[in-house]
Fold each of these.
Amino acid sequence: MMDPTIAAIATPLGAGGIGIIRMSGQDALSIADKVFKSKSKKVLQEQRSHTIHYGWIIDPDTEEVIDEVLMMLMKGPNTYTREDVIEINCHGGMIVIQKILQLLLKNGAQLAEPGEFTKRAFLNGRIDLSQAEAVIDIINAQTELSLQSSISQLGGTLSQKVKNLRQELLEMIAHIEASIDYPEYDMEELTYEMIQSKTEMLLDQVNDFIRTADTGRMIREGIQTVIIGKPNVGKSSLLNALLREQRAIVTDIPGTTRDVLEEYITIQGVPLKLMDTAGIRETADVVEQIGVEKSKEWMTKSDLVLVMMDASTKFTTEDHEIFKLIEGKRCLVLINKTDLPRKLDIKQVFAYVDKEQILELSVKEGEGMDQLENRLREMFFAGEINVKDDVFITNVRHKDALVKAKSSLETVLETIELEMPEDCLSIDLQSAYEYLGEITGETVGESIIHQIFSQFCLGK
Ligand SMILES: Nc1nc2c(ncn2[C@@H]2O[C@H](COP(=O)(O)OP(=O)(O)OP(=O)(O)O)[C@@H](O)[C@H]2O)c(=O)[nH]1
Ligand SMILES: [Mg+2]
């Protein structure tokens, strides 16, 4: 049985210059012919693929002219879904677009589910699952880097690497199986040492992948950056200055910020998820106390801590507490309010961090802000993030699959250590092979596929 022909609105709802309705399936052209009258009386089904036709959408039952349109005609298999595809470019009004869609549905199309066009591209073998996921990521990309990495994933860079790994596993499994099943054949013997070294090599590659996941997450979600410090040092002022808007409340009353504020910004191409927190101090105020606890909690979860200090006040036990909290975290110390007379003894800061980690600034005067931005860029960009050529694991599902494959490969190595029989090896090699297949979708269940595509928007 063939799949039904599906249709959906592909452009966002609301008024716009142009609206696009998309239709895919074996009846796409014949349905289009029912509702379309070309200026030169052309029959779409007889036209060449990848051509555009001018005319009107007319309800065949009532002869009502609904809109003046351009019809894009694409015959399978060289289309997004590999099926025949029609895209109707009409005027971008809510009512017009809806009316055309309704007309297609009345004439034999079915309303597409979210992501169904891309799902067909996957099921018809044009793209694999990781590429389909890249399509969602491109649509949802919040940062330039995230977009670049998704485009590269759509191009198949990740798929290719995973395929290579799986191919090597498959060859190994086949070799082991063959030597068990047909011992009489004179094959090159696969020794335990050979299996071991090959497995170690594959494990290394899997581990390399897993290691990119942290950077991948930062590319996708932004680098989690928390501003912490004593009350009143200027944390909220810094957030506002970086955002270039008055997002957080700033007053000269210590303890102004009670809750964690979260904002996404891109600084010189570096995506940051920036968090302003409540100033850390001992307090009897219950609300503030909760805020302080939250500050500490976020701090431990962050990729980068910006510790802010006030140059016009002395180093206190609270600062000492804060430096103890951030031990082992990637951090920058920002000494603010350099426009005021200095009371802070910088030597006390040297006790906790290196000189290179300290920046002096005045948020109020805008001094040192450029240096801060350059510094952030250097920290994350020192030529190391090259999303176009390198593969980064940006998807949690992919990371989970890799972690499972890793553990199977580790079991293989343990089995070799214990000198267990060869067929035991093959079981775990097999599961590593299958886990990796989850990334590209070769070994993934219906429900996961359904779940992935349900995250799509309509018409994609
Ligand atoms: N002189 C001077 N004042 C500043 C500077 N940066 C911030 N301030 C002032 O310091 C006071 C506190 O600023 P906030 O940004 O609210 O400080 P905070 O660290 O968020 O304070 P809490 O939310 O209470 O923890 C405000 O009056 C700011 O205008 C600076 O560079 N120089
Ligand atoms: Mg504040």
Amino acid sequence: MNAENKTFHILTFGCQMNVHDSDWLGRALCAHGWTRAPEDRARVVVVNTCSVREKPERKVYSLLGRLAGLGADVPGRFLAVGGCVAQQVGRGFFERFPQVRLVFGTDQTARAPQALEALVSGAEPGPLALLDFEPAFLPRALYLPEGGGAADAPGHDGGAARPDDGQALARPGQAFVNIMQGCDNFCAYCIVPYVRGRQKSRPAAEVLAEVRALAGRGVREVTLLGQNVNSYGLDRHGDGTGFAGLLRQVCAVDGVARVRFTTSHPKDLAPEVVDAFATLPQLCPALHLPLQAGSDRILHAMGRRYDMRRYLDLVAALRAARPDIALTTDLMVGFPGETEADFQLTLEAMRAVGYESSFSFAYSDRPGTRSVDMAPKIAKDEKLDRLARLQALQEELTARALAARVGAGAVVLLEAESRRQDGRGPVAWRGRDEGGRVVNVPLGGRGGRPGQLVDVRIVQAKKHSLRGEAVGEPW
Ligand code: SF4
């Protein structure tokens, strides 16, 4: 074995949890003397997989086949597979792809750096499978991002992952902090509880230590991350701190200007958390609240354990607490048994709530979930037609929500200079307002650095973004 060549490349699919895991793994490897390299030059290529989307196994197999054909001249090269598909397929990868030397499940990311080290040094001949579910949240060493960078990925409530097939994108000044693992809900269509295990809350002291360390590195915005953050602390691993209490403590950390959280299950959104939107100025007026369907009959079949009345009551309470709150959601069309009338109720719910954006999907069977045995299945053409109609409505709602921001004030967290510079006028920056909307803002002589905040007035709404004018210096 060539122990000197410690180069790696990570390919990530799926939700924020996976992107966050990959981000951590990359930093952990760098802290132990590894360096990043292109996928065809790296000694080790790690594929962090997701099983939420359709035919995930097939996609992973085809990717591994491609990777196995690359880098034949790199001594000691091998592949590692982590995440949800690794949890499901396990040792099966070794039979199919001899180049795979490590498989690690969703609870075992913390052990992956040592395992890779052992394989590269020859201390462990491999192949190695780390697939156990841990009884409690496995502590991870804190490898802080340089300058407070973090991963960029969408929310996730089982059906809502969007593949991200690259290295994690850094967003200066922002960071994700994992507060729990797994889920106890077993929604009929969702594979998450089977591949990520039961819910395990991370002790509040550990969460706060990480937030303080990040704030010390200049992180201004923290997103608390988990499959169902509203039930934080309700499992037997909790230390008595509930989610509202954790939010209060995180918002009180010196230097943290903005706090967000994702993902929420409507059934567990407690009144204290709704109140937090009114009382904690650091808590951003933005909430991703997965609805999935607007028909009570379908919600019941999905096992979501709320109905439209409960959901709309929550929306009203949230808007009373924070009238400018930006609501986004996950929606699924074509669940088994969904009629056109059921689907119309989903459109009605979208109009009633006025979502600023949504992740939407056509239902498809996930082996091992309850809905596989539910009938009748909806024809593919019908599902795609419903999805297209739903997405057309969302475009209208998004345009309306963005147009309503024109004239309003906002505080934008600067991310980078805008990609589209017209060469005339001052340099424009891209950032996000408190609601999570993308805002482009020319700063010109005002300078500006990624991770700074700037007060703006919104002057124009585009299709998926806003344009603002700075009304002060970046700070
Ligand atoms: S709440 Fe339901 S959809 Fe979300 S992760 Fe848990 S089981 Fe999946």
Amino acid sequence: MIEVRGRRRGVTDVPTWLRRDGPVDPIAVLSVARQVAAHLSEGPAGAGGRAAARRLRWLLGVHAVGLAGLSGTVEWSGRPVDEAAALELAAAAPHSEKFTGKPGLAAVPLIVDHEVTGVLVVDGPSAGKAVREAAWLVENALERRHGEYTTVADEFEAIETYLVLQRAVMGERLQVQIRVVPDVLAVPLPYLVLQPLVENAIRHGLEPLGRGGTVQVQGEARNGDCVISVEDDGVGMAPAEVAALLAGKATGRVGLSNVDRRLRTAYGPWYGLVVETERDAGTRVLVRVPLSQPGVLPS
Ligand SMILES: Nc1ncnc2c1ncn2[C@@H]1O[C@H](COP(=O)(O)OP(=O)(O)OP(=O)(O)O)[C@@H](O)[C@H]1O
Ligand SMILES: [Mg+2]
């Protein structure tokens, strides 16, 4: 069990309830927690609700997970054994403090900024314990939606933590170079922009090589923008494949397109991701954000 301590508790921390039977790959858990956060960017009842529920079900190892917004409809992943009881519980949960029903079934309100924003329902062994811990993860993701910006400094800190974990798994095979100029440390950045890119560099770039390699992350100021590059000397990709990914044509692969979309939404089309790659030639992904962003305050 690896415990990560950061400056504040965020979705990249490994929660204590992951002491499930058998070995748990902390990297897989971090990755899934990050995906849950991304899928919840439109709230518990948003378009990503079902995908978030599916990943939570995997994390918890339970029969079914349901996510409901305030309108009452529940997005299920899996089927609760007693669906009527589960729905009844979901309907009751916003009005009561942490509410636990029959054995195997539990529902809790999702409270963000002191307000109920939805309900989480879990059906499975140890549902009562699992639901509270999962609620923490979901509330954390929803809370971050309110404060959407962090700083370059915080994102670099988060990826350093991530890379320390990765080195624990891969050892010397993973070489890491992180460099950031002080001028850009305070620049606001939408949260969790870099981690998915670093994760890709290792998982898709270096791991298939078998022999390891180098990941470089660099941040600097260039022509009025803050430019951050994430580079690996791994297997690379066919440029056409990247174009299809960024066009959102690959289902179930949310990392790149999600980061790209969030950057464009925040700053305009000029600020989409730039991916430089070729098969067998490694990959460099460039993130650009304006150096000065009036009105944006990191939370
Ligand atoms: N640095 C890289 N080197 C080689 N291939 C990459 C790299 N980054 C991404 N890819 C390829 O692009 C695909 C899409 O990446 P993306 O992050 O969007 O989805 P994913 O990693 O498959 O899933 P997830 O949604 O968990 O991130 C990957 O499956 C991989 O084939
Ligand atoms: Mg990815």
